[in-house]
Amino acid sequence: MGRGTLRIYLGAAPGVGKTYAMLAEGHRRTERGTDCVVAFVEHHGRPRTEVLLHGLEQVPRRRLEYRGAVFEEMDVDAVLRRAPAVALVDELAHTNVPGSRNAKRWQDVEELLAAGVDVVSTVNIQHLESLGDVVESITGVRQRETVPDEVVRRAGQIELVDMSPQALRRRMAHGNIYAPDKVDAALSNYFRPGNLTALRELALLWVADRVDEYLNAYRSEHRVSAIWGSRERIVVGLTGGPEGRTLIRRAARLAEKGAGGEVMAVYIARSDGLTSASPKELAVQRTLVEDLGGTFHHVVGDDIPAALLDFARGVNATQIVLGSSRRKAWQYVFGPGVGATVARDSGPDLDVHIVTHEEVAKGRGLPVARGGRLGRARILWGWAVGLAGPVVLALGLNTAGLGLANDMLLFLAVTVAAALLGGLLPALASAAFGSLLLNYFYTPPLHRLTVADPKNIVAIAIFFGVGMSVASVVDLAARRTDQAARLRAESEILSFLAGNVLRGETSLEELLERVRETFAMESAALLERAGDVAPWTCAGRAGFGPPLERPEDADVDMPVGDYMALALTGRVLPAADRRVLAAFAAQAAVVLERRRLQEEADQARTLAEGNRIRTALLAAVSHDLRTPLAGIKAAVSSLRSDDVAWSEEDQAELLQGIEEGADRLDHLVGNLLDMSRLQTGTVTPLIREIDVDEVVPMALGGVPEDSVGLDVPETLPMVAVDPGLLERSVANLVENAVKYSPPGRRVLVAASAIADRVEVRVVDRGPGVPDEAKERIFEPFQRYGDAPRGAGVGLGLAVARGFAEAMGGTLTAEDTPGGGLTMVLSLCAAATRPEPLPAGEFPTEPERHTI
After folding, report:
1. Helices 508-518 & 578-619, crossing angle to 10 degrees?
2. Which of 112, 211, 431, 723 has the most CB atoms lying inside 10 A of its own CB?
3. How far apart are CA 526 and CA 591, in angstroms?
4. Helix (H, G, I), strand (E, B) or coil at 379
């Protein structure tokens, strides 16, 4: 049985109708005779969702007990035993209760897909892993439940369930999403019109990018070269001149006018001579276009207009932005210029914008070399001058009678002109033809191909030799100029590449994409294998349809060592280009090796941290655990001894010592276990709404009475936290504050609401902590100052901060006015968190967009 297909209903926010659309799809498939079951959908007592569940078979759920409460999760084994054709699974990003088969629901879905079951699921845009920072900057809420983008991108079909912010807020006000007592808080916080509009834009743009990927794949598979203006893509042609910044900003303004506009700046390095490009200016322009959200591309091309148009058509661009020429008026005799040529050859599907700027007609910083490798037109002119020039000159000299010496100099001038224009062969032809004409018309006997005076033979020979020498020098100069120009273009590319790699700005995939663009290939892949007979594997690729089995299947195969090769498809590269390709291949191998070394370094760092934790744990066991154990053992031994008759007061004192030692052990072991859980990433908070005044008093049980004062108003908003983790965090903070407070000075625990946060402050009047040490005290096994061994192992603050961050909060240290230290625990107010379970029951079916 093959792998199942995944279909996802994507929404911008809770309440847009994803669950409604999924259940409606389940009914449609059931009516068509498809074996469809509900693997997990929670209706939360909402009547419309419950109605849609009627008529659909529901697989029994698995019940799990965690922290004294019973939770229900999808029973993956039961679904696999049932083996339906289609399973409906709500909330793809959901985090399962500890003890479940998998940590995340999307991992459960992967098992169903691997078993050949088709899955229909739902997810909100804010739960995509790559958008976590963006969503937090918009809403102020960090999403803890996320799903990797690649899981969603692999879906065979994605439907965008869309709704305007105004309509969604109306649904919220009517009580169709949250309970009535939560509506006002939600409308004034997460469900503000600005938040919803921004999230909707994120969803639309993400789906548009996915559509764009499909379009590019289709164009590549079907080799479509015509431009399809499905999206505004603006290519900016850069010369490296100062006008480039103006062009980039103009293109960015054009892109803003169209939905999903994209700006791509391209610099084409000429291989036929030096240009006026300034590497420093190109670097500034590259930074500018990237800051404006565009991309920078570096391409080699012999014909700049043709290369620019090829690039634009290759990326399916709709517009080209060029600057008005900086050439002076007389320079137009050499041709119409890049702008006019691009506009003439662009065709009806590509708009060309010529933008004026301050550098128009001011000339270029360096002369533009026309030579190098002689072009076809130039060679034709050389042949024309070399063959027709002597004939025209001979006709003119027949009537002038300037003498043999002057005639030879004039014929030599024609030969030099042919050499300058056409190179060696036209010059040789001109020299030979001119020698015949000189012999026939101007050396006695006239009009015969014989020479009477031996001196004239020497003169003609010298003329022919000088002509050949000049032609050879001109041809050699042209070849050297071509080599210098090509090396200049190659050095620009290699220096740009090396700079990116050395700065760590280029990943392997980005580097391969740069290779593909530079050499105008369809795909590029870095293949490797473990040995001579081992199969090839793909370490990285760019483009569509790269060779993944053997380098020999590609159009270009560049070996990198014995067991690695860079493979490209699209066309066969000339030998001159393979030198630069070899440098790219070597850099690709370096990037791959660096990535693996970084992964190994990360693993080594993790192991080193684990070793440090284990070493500290051993130190704690060797002293901090043994000390209370020794006290307990001594007290127990004394009580059991028959040699001494203990009074009731002595017995009570010994028992009190045993109790204090046991409490100390319990606290120490608890912190050690908590730190171990934090280090291994196994802390999974169960967030729920609770009042701060219900939790904080419970955290004071481990400190002496009258050592702490409370100021926690009952009117504070509820917080979205794990009560157990919050209690442990506050308990550690209070214990630390009491430990360092002077005798007779009470620790103050106060709470207050600030904007969408609730802050719990633990204030002491102890010695305080310098600013440079305020972060260090939160590291594991750190104790400030000369704290004695009996003061603990230094885990309390590290555990408190770890638990705070696990709940989406923060923990910082501040100076107490008048002396001392204040610990500030900032928590999310409940109203600022979205409902974790989205609603999907609505009377009408929402608008959907399928890709």
Report:
1. 170
2. 431
3. 11
4. helix
